[in-house]
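Example 3.2
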Amino acid sequence: MEINNIAYQGAILWAIFLVLGAALSLLIRPFKERNFFSRLKVWLFIIPVFLSAIYLGKWGFFGLVVFCFSASYYEIARLNKEMKFWPHFFSIMLALPWIIVAQLFEYNSWLIIPALLASAMVLYVFISWKQNNPWNLPVFSLILGVSLSYWLYLYGFAGFRLPLFVFSVVSLCDVMAFVCGRLLGRFKPFSKISPHKTAAGYLGGFLSALAAVFLFRFAVPNLNFFQLIFTGFLLVASGIIGDLLGSKIKRLYNVKDFSHLLGPMGGIIDRLDSLLITMGTFYFYLVVFIK
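Structure, written as tokens:
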């Protein structure tokens, strides 16, 4: 399928979702009462920016990744209240080279090492992360840099259609998890880490992700039915881990959102957390099992 055709279909689908979402937010009483439209307006900005960046090519997508890293680093540094030069320099040097390497060179098998190291750091956050620890900024910076580097490797693997697919599936999962959780949710399985996430939200997000992998299957024509089903499970599971990672950090710093850069939807990390791990997870799934 031609690149322009894939881009056209992706843009049309997202336009339909946004129009339907706006109509529901403004016309259906439960949605109006919970002011869903104020959150939807942020997606009216996020989606065109992301779709434009991936369509503009390798360097356009690189610009988006650098912006995401910069904004996310600002948010986590702001929480740590670190003002000295050298901690910032050290933290950035742990992260930024991986993004640059991913942009300039093809993936090499030895690059599994930073991926494993970042995975260990994610585990460290869940087990031992403490407020005001001097290693907090370097640890999260490394996770951020390595995770974002796999956005670029995924782009380099088959062009913009793969980031389009992952972004669309995970984002729709997030949106529907929020809607189902707020309207139907009662039971909260991870109340100590993420007190607002409910079982109904997770179920709604999962079912939406399964629907989305088939709606956007034109972006991954090489995947068969069963591979698409497994991909849905994989993206939902890795997205939940990323979301809980962000929630864990926010709980320890006792903040609701990482910042207010995106208004009612919080900060950049609040929107990126589900995508941080999913891009890399999907990349390794393709490289190891699909090729």
